[in-house]
Amino acid sequence: MNLLILFYIPAITAAITLLLSRRIKYLQEIISFAGSLVFLNYALRAFSLRDQFLKISWFNISFIDFSLDFRLYHFSKFLLIFLGLFTLLTVLYSAGYFRQRKISRFYFPFISLTLSSATAIVLANNFFVLLVAWELVTLLLFFLIAMGEGKPAAMAAGKAFAILGFTDVALLLAVIALPIAYNTWIITDLKILVGNPLSVAIYVLMFTAAIAKAGAIPLHSWIPPAAVHGPLPAVAFLPASLDKLLGVYLFARITLDVFEFPIDSGLNMMIMIIGGATILGGVLMQIMQSELKSLLSYCAITQVGYILLGIGSGHPIGIAGGIFHMLNHAIYKSCLFFSVGAVEDRTKTTQLDKLGGLATSMPVTFMACAVAALSVSGIPPFNGFVSKWMIYQSLVDGRSISSMLFLVIAMFGSALTLASFLKLLYGTFLGQHQPSEKSADPAIQFNANRDATWTMRIPMITLALLCIIFGLFASYPIKQFIAPVIGLETAGITASISIGTALWNPTLATTLIIIGLLIGFLVYYFSRFKVREVETLFIGGEKFDLENEKLFASKFFEFIERTKILGGFVREGGKGIFDIYNISSDLGLIGVNVLKKLHDGILSTYLSWCIIGLGVLCFILMVM
Amino acid sequence: MDNLFLYVIAFLIFPGFLFTSSFGLIVSWIDRKVSALIQWRVGPPFFQPFYDLLKLWHKELIIPATAKKNGFILAPLLGISSVTLLATILGIINLNPEYQFIGDIIVILYLMIIPPLSIVWGGFTSGNPFGALGASREIKLMMGYELPFILAIVTVFFKVGSISLGEIIQYQHVHGVMLNLPSMIVAFIVSILCLQAKLAQVPFDISEAECEIMEGPFIEYSGPLLAVYKLMQSMLQVVFPWFLISIFWGGTSFQGWGILWAVLKYIFIITLVILIKNTNPRIRIDQAVKFFWGWVTLVALIAMILMFMGY
C-alpha cells in the first residue's frame, strides 16, 4: 500500500466537497462521511502492515535536503486509526448538528483537509514536512473556529491563531536550526544528546509548540474562548481531540525519540512542574465555571497535566500511561462535547442554571455524558482510571519529594474533577426540570422533550462504549497500541513485561460488582415490595413549591471564591490575569505608548532621529 | 483463589458481604450503646440494628414522581456492591499478602470514592432540592477531606516505596508497624479526622444534618432502599478503619491471637470515632472544608516532612 494514499483520500474528499454547494441537503455530509470511512478502512489496513519508509526527493538548497520523508511505524499506525475514527464521528455528528443551523460551505472541506494534514504530521519522518502540516492544522483551526457565530468567534479564532502562530514560529526556529547544527532534519536520523545550550534551546522551542497545541499552562488560554464561541463539532474535533493527539504526539516524539536526556537533567523536572501547574490551575478554574462548554474546555487543559506528568516521569509505565491517557482523553472529551452539543441543540443554551432535569427526556445523551464524566474523573472501571493509575504508579517509583507532591496534586485534581462533573451532571440532567422558555421566533422552538437525532446519538454511544471497553479490557489497547511505541525507547526493560505485570484485572472486579448488582436487582424484583410512585414532593407535611425552591448548580462551589488566597486566585484567573495573551498584549501596549511619545509631529524631532540613526549606522559600518 | 467461583464466595460471604455487613451491624450497636452511655441513657438491645433493618425491609417503597427512577434505584445498590468489593480486596490481601497486584491501593482509594458518589447520585436523582443540597454538601466535604487523606496515605507510600497493600503489610511485618514512627502517628491522626468525615459522623455529618435538611440525600429514600443505604453505612464503618489498620498498624492476621489483636485495634479506632462524634457539635460545610484544607493539610504536610527527615 502506498503511504501517500492516506492523505490523498481526505484531500480528494475536501476537493470534491469544496465544489459542492450547501443547497443540496446532506450532499457534503455524505461525501465527507464516505471519505473518512474509506480513510478509516485504509488506516485499519495500514495497522497490520510492516513498518515502512517513503522518500520523495524534491530539491536541495546547499546542504539542506527538501525531500518529503514519510515513515509508518507503531505510533503513527495507531494514531491514524483514531484520527480516522474521530473524523468519521465528527462528520456524522455535524450532519445532525447542522441540519437546521447555518454553517459555512467550507466547514466540511476543512474538516477533511485537517484530517489530511494531521495524517501528514503523524506520518512525517522529516521536520520540514511536519512543520508545514503543523502550520496547516493551525490555520484550519483558525478558520473552523471563526465559522462560529458573530464577532466573539472571530475574536476567539484570532486569539487561538495568535498563540498557536507564535508557538509555531518557535517550532520553525527549532526546525531551521536542526540542519545547521546537526546536518539533517530527518527524525529517525537525529539522536541529540541534550547538553549544550543549542540542543536545550531547540528542545524547549519544540516543546513550546507541542504543549501550546495540547493546551498546557501557560499556553492554554486559547482553548476556553475557542470552545465557547466556535462551532461545537469543530471544537470537539480539534481542541478536544485532534490537537491533543498531535500535540502529545510531537511532545512524545521529541522527548522519547529525538532527544536523549542525561540522567538528572532539569528538563524532566520542568515538564513535570508544568504538568503539575496545569492540573492545579486548570482544575481550580474548571470547578468554578457555570457554563458547560467553558467547564469542559478547562477540563481539557487539566487533563494535559496528567499526560505531561506521565511522560515527564521518564518511567516506562508513566510514558505508557501518558500516551494511553492522551488517547482516553480524546475519547471522553469528544464524547462530553458531543453530549453538551446535543443539549445545546435541544435547549438552545449551555448555561448550567437554565438547564435541569434533562435525564428523562434525553436518556441516551445523559448516559453517554455520565459515562464520559465518570471516566474523566477516573472512576474504576472506566478507561480514565487505568491511565491515571499507571501515571500514579510511575510517580511513586520516582521516590522523591517532588514526585510525591505531584502525586498528591494529581490525585487531588482527580477528586476536584469529579466534583466539577457531578455539578455538571446535576445542573444539566438531574435536578429539577426548568420550565420551557417560549421563544418569540417559532423557528427555534424550545424542544427539550426529545433526545438528540440518531446522527448525533451514534457518535456519543460509540465513544461512551469505547470508554467502557478501554477500561474493562485495558490490556488490549495497551499491548496493541502503546507497548510497541515505548518498547523502542526503554532499553533494559521490555515494555511487555513492565506493563504486563503492572496491570490489575478490571474485568474480575467489574464482574463481582455486576454480580452484586444482579443479586440486588433479583432481590428487588422477587421480594415484591410495595412500590408507590407518588405525585409530588412533600416536606414536613406540606406540599413543596418546586417552582420557587430551586438549587442552582452554579452556586455549588461559591464558597471557594469567598476564601482569601484561593478565592483571589480563582477570581483573578477568571478575569484572565494569568492569560499569556493578555499579559503580552499589555506589554505590547506599553511599548507602543513609548513609541507614541516619540511621534510628536514636529519635523525637527524626526530629522534629529534620522541624523542619530545615520550616525549609528556609520559607526557600525566603519568601526565594527 | 484461581477461579471465579472462589472469588464469588469471597465476595458474597467472607470477607465480603455477609461478614462485613453483620460485623458492621454489631459495630453500629456498639456505636449506639456507647453513645447512650455517654449521654446517660441505657441504649438499645444487641439485636436492635438487625430489627431496624428488618422493619425497613418490610416497609413500603415510595419513589417520588420527580425522581429519575432507574438512577434512584441503582444508586444504593451500586454503593453497597462497591463497599463489598472493597471489603473483599482488603480481606483477601490481609489474609494473604501474596495476592496483591501492583498499585492496588490506588484501586482501593478510588473504590472508596464510590460510596459517597452513590449517596450523591441518590440525592441528585431524588429530584428533591433538599436531597440535592445534601448531595452538594457531600461533594464539598469529599473535596475537603480528600487532600489531607491523600497526603497522609502518600506519606506511607513513600516510606515503603510501594503502592501495593500487600507490600506495605509485609514491610510492616519485617520493619515493625508504621505507628512506631512519629511521622506516621501524625499521619494517622490526620487519617482519623478524615475517617470521621468519610463515615459522615458528627461533626462532619453535614450532608445528612437531620435537624436541618432532613437526612439530605436520603430524604426521599424509604423502605428497602433506605435499608440498603443504612447497611452500606454500617459496612463502611468496618471497611474504612480496616484500611487504616492495614496501612498504619500492620494489618490483621486471622490466626490464633491475631484475631483478638485485630479486634482490639479495630475497637480502638472505632472508639476514637465514637468519642469525637459525641463530644463535638456539627460545623458548617465551609468551615469543614476550610478546616480540612487549612489545619489538617498543614499537619499532614508536617507528617510528610517528618517522614523525609527520617522520623
How many domains, in number, for the residues of chain B?
Answer: 1
Count of helical stretches of chain A: 23
Helix content of chain A: 55-70%
List the helices and strands of chain A in order.
HHEEHHHHEHHHEHHHHHHHHHHEEEHHHH
Beta-strand fraction estimate of chain B = under 5%
Q: Classify the secondary structure makeup of chain A into a structural class.
A: mainly alpha
Shape verdict of chain A: globular
- What's the end-to-end separation of chain A, in Å? 59 Å
Mean pLDDT of chain B: 84
Low-confidence stretches of chain B are: none
Q: Structural class, judged by helices and strands of chain B?
A: mainly alpha
* Radius of gyration of chain B from CA coordinates: 19 Å
Rg calculated over all Cα atoms of chain A: 26 Å
Number of strands of chain A: 7
Strand/helix succession of chain B: HHHEHHHHHHHHH
Strand portion of chain A, in percent? under 5%
Number of helices of chain B: 12
Q: Major β-sheet of chain B, in short?
A: none
* Oligomer type: heterodimer
The mean pLDDT of chain A is 82
How many strands appear in the DSSP assignment of chain B? Answer: 1
Outline the structure in words.
The complex is a heterodimer of chains A (624) and B (311). Chain A is mainly alpha-helical. Chain A is 69% helix and 5% strand. In chain A, strand 6 and strand 7 (542-543) form a beta hairpin. The longest helix of chain A has 33 residues, at 150-182. Chain B has helices spanning 4-12, 17-38, 48-58, 69-95, 104-125, 129-160, 165-175, 182-198, 210-213, 223-248, 258-279, 285-308; one strand at 61-64. Chain B has one domain. Chain B contains twelve helices and one strand; from the N terminus they run αααβααααααααα. In chain B, 73% of the residues lie in helices and 1% in strands. The radius of gyration of chain B is 19 Å and the shape is globular. In chain B, helix 8 runs antiparallel to helix 10 and helix 8 (182-198) packs antiparallel against helix 12 (285-308). Chains A and B meet through helix 14, helix 15, helix 19 and strand 5 of A and helix 1, strand 1, helix 4, helix 5 and helix 6 of B.
